[in-house]
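Retro notes, structure queue

What went well: the backlog is down to a handful. What didn't: a couple of records were mislabeled last round, so from now on we paste the full input next to the output in the thread. Example, using Membrane protein from Streptomyces uncialis:
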Amino acid sequence: MRTWTARQWLAAAAVTVAAGAAIGIPTGVVDTPLYARMTAVLWWNYPVWALSSLLVGLLVATYVGQPPAVRARGPRGPRAVAAALLSAFAVGCPVCNKLVVLALGTSGALSYWAPAQPLLAIASLALLVHALVRRLRTVADCPVPVTASSTKADGAPVA
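Corresponding output:
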């Protein structure tokens, strides 16, 4: 990440904010008039939400400004999206999740789903960290040589 361009850092910041909104607003971690959470936000929901958003932003930034051959290597998008979605399930209100309530009922959501949420949080953060580390290593260890077909006329890499 020491060699990242300003464009990559800007992308990381923008995606971090977007991921924060995408995870925080529907789960009620971010208080808005759009959604009323039925259970209180727990203390650990905030760091999981913030870390998940940051990791998603950093992961997306690894793809910015890279040649197509580099963008194609490494963790695939659906896996990272699944890890981010797992973060949303981890910080979300247990009785507000219609799928959980349908499967377990309200008492089951509070008795079984709520205690499992910290484990989901750990799993989602571990998956996002793994994806980011793997992606950073892939880009660093396997640089793609710049060829005439991967550069523009002015010598800049093709995005």
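Agreed that this is the format going forward. Reviewer comment attached to the example: The chain is about 65% helix and 0% strand.
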